[in-house]
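Hey everyone, long-time lurker, first post.

I ran two proteins through the pipeline my lab uses and got sequence/structure pairs for each. Pasting them in order. The first:
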Amino acid sequence: MPGFTADLTLENENEYKVTITYDFEAMDVKKAEGMTYFKNNHLPELLKLTPSQFADNLINAGASEQK
């Protein structure tokens, strides 16, 4: 889907890293909302967040921050 990428990197045999990128200027959000993968992603709500708000939400949900 244009505007969305998901990259999986195997760090070692016990660890992997997933990098997901949303480009809301390129993504057809209405079309994405109807796709199984995006059903629980709440895309309209994501559009209202700044990148820092989005990152804060992930951290509050248990994600770890790497610099």
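...and the second, right after it:
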Amino acid sequence: MKKLLETITKEEDKAGESEDSEVATSLRLSSRQVPHSCSTVYDVKCIFCQKNTKFIRGQKTRESLIQCRELRADSSIRNAAIKKMDGRMLAIVSRDLVAAEGHYYRSCYRSYTRQEKVTGSGRHAEDSADEYEKALSYSYDELFMFIRNELFANPKIVAMSDLTSNFVTAMRTCGIDQVKESSKKHLRRKLESVFGQALHIFSDEKGKLFLYPDNLSITALAQSNIALTTELQSLKSLTHNNAITTAALKIRADLEQHSSMGDSLLSMNGNFLSTEQSFMTRLFM
């Protein structure tokens, strides 16, 4: 009986040890199989601007997305984020960017890390660039407002040079005396991107650009053409008749106030053409 009890006790102890071992093994396995809450690598997009497509400024070429492969780049980004106290970027660089396969655009990287090397002159240049960009934005808004409130309200054909002049004037009101040629050159592209088919841009035989709004009717164009033709004919008729008489009488009235100048002109001798003779006759006779 005693031996039987000892045998049963030993079997129970072994069974308990086996259960403990199974529980420990299960815990170890479960801890290894816990899924990660986040991906092991970052998405293929710029860690700065969060874009996966970006064009080079002033060009139609896409900028290449670069994968972080150097520890030096990782360190530069981390140091810049610490100096800027940039919470979002600090969260990103909390992981090794090389291991996490972080990506960035070279222009974004330079812009973000350039702050740690800014000197007095560099800061001044950067401030000037910011002022220019603000003036550019303001001048574009003023030009767009003019087109919406004036050109569309009173449809007509306008020379691109006139709009460029308005744009330069707006820039000067912001303190920008020297407007970049690229800003003027890209004005047409800016208008096309904002107004699309609502504005029609064309050039004449000499290459001069003009534009008109899409609400300009053919009737309005015909009326404008008739008015210009009538005015031109009127000016041509005045050239040989009333214009000479009117100009001579006006000059004569001014000369009568300065008799010495009139006497000197009267003493002049020379041969005149028929038009000049008519002019001088009206002037002095």
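Reply from user beta_strand_b:
Welcome! Quick read of the second one: The two ends are 164 Å apart (CA to CA). The chain is about 60% helix and 5% strand.
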